[in-house]
Amino acid sequence: MKFLIATDVSGKGFKTQASALQSADFGGFLDDLFFEKSDHLMLISSRQPGRVAGDRVFWDGAAIDRDIAFSGIDPVVDAPERVCRYLHGLLDGQAPNNLTGIFGGALIGADGSVVAAPDPVSQYALFYWQAGDRTIVANCLHLIEAVLRQEGNRASRDFASNAYEFAFGAGAWTRTGLAGVHKVPPHHFVLISGGKLQLNPMPGNLFAPVDQADYSSLLSAAAGRLKEAASALSARYPGKGLLLDLSGGKDTRLVLGSFLASGNRQFQVFLGGAPDGEDRKIATRLVRHFGLTQGEYLSNLGGEKLSPIDTARRSAYRFEGTSSLFQAVPGRERLSGVAQVRGGSSEAKTRSFYRLDDAWRPRGLLGGAGGFLSALAKGKPLATERLLADVTGKLETPAQVLPFLLSARGGRVHRFMTRSFLKGAYDSFAGNMAELSALGIPDANLADAYYIHDRGWRHCGFATQVMNGFRPVFEPLNDPCLLAAQMSLGTVGRDNARVARDLFAAFDVPDLLEMPFEGADWPGELSGQLLARREELSRISSEPIEPDAGLFPDGGGQADSIYSMGGEAYMKAVQPYMLALAGDLPISSSVWDYMQRDRLLEAIEEGTFAQPRFAHDGVRLLHALIWMQGDEARG
To answer: Measured on CA atoms in the order 152, 40, 184, 320, is the torsion positive or negative?
Structure first.
């Protein structure tokens, strides 16, 4: 369900007409339009809201509530009541952590007051806009854009979010693809009373220090909740109606472990990654060793065939100028009765993404002594500041180190950015750290808190949120109890994924931990019989297995994407289109406040972004340019 709630303190009413709204304004699906307005309040949604006592309830996403799993596509009868209890719990000062997954909801009380909130870990994106007497809260930027257009407050498209994504893969904070529209900050909920919007911290503090003595009980509870979630999903989608993502990494294997440990094997697995890549080979060994059924990807193409440009234009529409990396669910079909289970929301809950143990030296921030000296010689914006800070001892805490660590990310593309943007980005990162510290988050927890507040929701949560519009997608690792266990550890334990190691031990599934992992021999402390067993398991055949189409046929469609074609071939195919998009932007475009026009156009023309190391950067930039030109394929 896509929904929008608008208030007007002045009581002048709203110009928006239901007849002017199209399905493309709701992400492509308009099931049963709900439209109601008065002088002070306007409610719009793509389907009818639920009613619980005197409240009207709007909700979206996929959640697991102890023994029941439900989603917007496959709801249960009492889903509105469950979401309503969650929202009322926040109002009552509780920390209602029984719901896990990526979801968001809002309720309108009989008195016209509004409460809107994301999931407890805040990976679902709710957006808000405020100007004068008017306030809008919604879960869809297209819908906000359409309503503001009718109201005469046209929102311009903003490149800032995309600039941070391209340059650093992080750092856009609450910025979105629309100027003046922000994501509700993580660990906050919205309260609108008397037409006034308040962003209130959720009860409790997920990132506050937790007594390390509580770690064992928290870990045990997290393991129990994951097994409980596996049972709930198996009961909701019996007969192998579940498709589990499986790679060579630890996170999807944790999800697999929760199912095996709970005795639930009625599922299929989908193997991602390059066909001949190490990721796929390890996943294939897991399939063979545990006797799993390999299924097809849950495609929603329904027979459509999309060119590389079509895929890019559809992806730019799906991700609304706010997350520019992915090319997921490019089709128009909606799938029900089957569900995908992902492990994408585990970063910062099972292992720190921003690892600080190697970040205290110039080597960790600027790519080695040679790179550091080269940066100094070339006058790169942050090199001198980094050296001065190091020499004067100003890099003593994570709050001081993280801005430098973040602003050094993605250095390969910094030559395309303006000097003023790069210098301003450091100040922005430093401001983000100050904001987190003001929330009472201690230095030791800043790195993980920053990931969840910024990169986590944009890359993991928002991707799942978008996909949930087309098929049920569950994220059982997006669990506040799991995060609490991580927060009770020191940085060494977090950096080395102790939570993941201990979850595998709690699941007690033989060979699940011993099977090699992709990318590194994690955990590195295996020895004796465990190490010998790992070497033995490494000899299992990794030859491809023919998937069982079963319940997951792909409908015969094909989307030519970076996943199916590979980075080099895909970016070569879209190169002329990308050059036209960039070249047609006027000199006055805000894009050139962030990027060096001549250098960028030259790089596109020379095929720089078709090189393997730049291909994913190129996809980010391509989607951003489509968004700024308004050339996305709507619907």
So the answer is: negative
| The two structure tokens encoding residue 248 | 């060579």
Q: Are 22 and 135 within one domain?
A: yes
Whether residue 314 is found in the same domain as residue 429 = no
Question: pLDDT band at 214, cuts 50/70/90?
Answer: confident
Domain boundary among 537, 570, 604: 537
Identify the burial level of 242 via C-beta atoms within 10 angstroms of its C-beta, where 0-12 means exposed, 13-18 middle and 19 or more buried.
buried
State whether 237 and 282 are in the same domain: yes
How confident is the model over 525-529, as a mean pLDDT? Answer: 85
Enter the pTM of the model: 0.93
What angle is formed at CA 479 by the lines to CA 507 and CA 249, rounded to 5 degrees?
55
> Domain check: are 197 and 226 in the same one?
no
Long-range Cβ pairs for the range 19-22 (8 Å, 24+):
20/146, 20/150, 21/146, 22/146
Tens digits of per-residue pLDDT, 385-399?
555 555 455 566 778
Note whether residue 225 is domain-resident: yes
- Parent domain of 587: 560-629
Rounded to an integer, the average pLDDT of 451-472 is 92
| Domain identity same for 89 and 170 | yes
Overall domain count for the chain: 4
Q: Considering the domain boundaries, does residue 512 fall inside one? A: yes
List beta partners, residue 131: 134
Strand partners, 417: 595
Q: How far apart are CA 232 and CA 266, in angstroms?
A: 12
Name the pLDDT band for 608 (thresholds 50, 70, 90): very high
> What string of DSSP letters covers 145-198?
HHHHHHHT-PPPB-SHHHHHHHHHS---TTB-SBTT-EEPPTTEEEEEETTEEE
Asked if residue 470 is part of any domain, the answer here is no
Instruction: Choose one of 180, 201, 222: the last residue of a domain.
Output: 201
Buried b (16+ CB within 10 A) or exposed e, 177-192: bbeebbbbbbbbbbbb
Q: Are residues 245 and 384 in the same domain?
A: no
Residue range 514-533: mean pLDDT, rounded: 84
**343 & 367 share domain:** no
State pLDDT tens for residues 257-303: 999 999 999 999 999 877 788 889 999 999 999 999 998 888 888 88
Q: For tokens 């098929």, what's the residue?
A: 471
Residue ranges in 169-277 assigned as alpha helix (H): 215-236, 250-261
Listed in sequence order, the residues at least 6 apart from 409 whose beta carbon sits closer than 8 Å to its beta carbon are 168, 169, 170
Does any domain span residue 133? yes
Alpha helices, DSSP H only, in 412-527? 419-438, 446-451, 462-467, 480-487, 491-495, 498-507
- Long-range Cβ contact pairs of 154-158 (< 8 A, separation 24 or more): 155/129, 155/179, 155/180, 155/181, 157/321, 157/627, 157/628, 157/630, 158/321, 158/590
Could you tell me the CA-to-CA distances from 515 to 80, 246, 370, 519, 523 in Å, in that order? Answer: 42, 13, 38, 13, 10
Do 175 and 86 share a structural domain?
yes
- Which helix or strand (DSSP H or E) is residue 61 part of? strand 55-65
Task: Write down the residue that tokens 């020499």 correspond to.
Answer: 391
Length of the chain in terms of residues written: 635
